[in-house]
Design brief:
Elements (H helix, E strand, L loop, with lengths): L6 E6 L7 H6 L12 E6 L1 H4 L6 H18 L7 E4 L5 H10 L4 H5 L2 H9 L6 H16 L4 E3 L5 H18 L7 E3 L34 H10 L15 H14 L3 H7 L4 H28 L2 H30 L5
Parallel strand pairs: 1-2, 2-3, 4-5
Helix pairs in contact: 3-12, 4-7, 4-13, 7-8, 9-12, 10-12
The chain binds adenosine-5'-triphosphate and L-tryptophanamide.
């Protein structure tokens, strides 16, 4: 990367199997940036351990997620696709940035508040400083844009504040990044509690649809999705369940809300819910099948993640040594 093109960076945690929310809010859009930007995509396993993980499951999820990113259309030869823990510069810059991030700023992070409430028995320091490691991920690559779902906007804004603070003291060290959030699918809600976002780490497996779910499982989950009693396919703030299903249907088919409301007028949920299920089955089918194919050749996946780590390290080390020099660390 010699910065003739702008840089796009994004990351995703191998904290479970990825959901339709992750796909619609993030992954699905990532390949398209490859034509215009130098793209960097990262499986953020160091972020995942802020919540307790089973080691065997974490290994599997990281490998499967790596394959899924390729299955969605990320070209590991053209872009940089790698695993966070394979590039030590992330943890190193994360440490330095901790010293330029305020306790008050981290205390205001919505994700921290939500996760400390849902994991009250394990409110660890890593969960609190999660955003500074994320800032390190982004700033190491002199990133211009960060394609993410709506829930990550606050973290990208904090990253910008940290970068600005650092640049204010030491001169232009970091590029200031900006979040890019999709218009449709930016916030897919839970199927059982539609006022909460769909999350891969939720307890109730009927609340999310996984990219690797079988067509039968997908259909079953949509048929059971929580709606309301008036059976009218119309988007409104009083109808969060149906509104979510309409958004999912639009994001899957490319149709507008008005078109969908018109087509299902007077048809009730008995027709609408299976139609949403079918649209999602077809949307996810190619990704699931390609992931299964890629997972059959672990040797090739290992070759590709080593290649990614090498390419990522070369860029990240440059930024890190610049930072260390500015801070006054003796050269290695
Ligand atoms: P966890 O449940 O472990 O916190 P997560 O499901 O929120 O994880 P991440 O790995 O943290 O997923 O996020 C990966 C990407 O998916 C991010 O860009 C995030 O904004 C996006 N994303 C996550 N959940 C949703 C959702 N429900 N709707 C749209 N985008 C989402
Ligand atoms: N915090 C993000 C995952 C993430 C990320 C990043 C996203 C870690 N590092 C860098 C974009 C850029 C999440 O929870 N979804």
């Amino acid at each position: 990367m010699n910065k003739t093109r702008k840089v796009s960076f994004s990351g995703i945690q191998p904290s479970g199997n990825i959901t339709l929310g992750n796909y619609m809010g993030a992954l699905r859009n990532w390949p398209s940036y490859q034509d215009e930007y130098d793209c960097v995509y990262c499986v953020v396993d160091e972020h995942a351990i802020t919540v307790r993980q089973d080691p065997t499951a974490l290994r599997h999820h990281a490998m499967e997620l790596f394959a899924q990113l390729i299955a969605t259309g990320i070209d590991p030869e053209k872009s940089i696709l790698f695993i966070q823990s394979h590039v030590p510069a992330h943890a190193e810059l994360g440490w330095a940035l901790n010293c330029y991030t305020m306790f008050g700023e981290l205390s205001r992070m919505i994700q921290f508040k939500e996760k400390s409430a849902s994991h009250a028995d394990n409110v660890n320091a890593g969960l609190f400083t999660y955003p500074t490691l994320m800032a390190a991920d982004i700033l190491l690559y002199q990133t211009d844009i960060v394609p993410v779902g709506e829930d990550q906007r606050q973290h990208v804004e904090l990253t910008r504040d940290i970068a600005q603070r650092f640049n204010g003291i030491y001169g232009d060290v970091f590029t200031l990044p900006e979040a890019v959030i999709p218009k449709v699918g930016a916030r897919v809600m839970s199927l059982t509690e539609p006022t909460k976002k769909m999350s891969k780490s939720a307890e109730n497996e009927n609340s999310y649809v996984l990219v690797m779910d079988s067509p039968d499982a997908i259909m079953r989950k949509f048929k059971r999705a929580v709606t309301d009693s008036d059976a009218c396919v119309r988007k409104s703030p009083e109808k969060p369940g149906v509104s979510n299903l309409i958004d999912i249907y639009c994001a899957a088919t490319g149709e507008s809300v008005e078109e969908v409301e018109r087509r299902f007028e007077g048809k009730g949920y008995g027709n609408f819910k299976p139609a949403v299920g079918e649209a999602v089955v077809e949307l996810l089918r190619p990704v699931r099948e390609e992931t299964e194919r890629l997972m059959a050749d672990k040797g090739e996946l290992e070759r590709l993640y080593r290649l990614g780590a090498q390419k990522a390290s070369a860029v990240a080390e440059r930024t890190l040594s610049k930072v260390h020099k500015k801070l006054g660390f003796l050269p290695r």
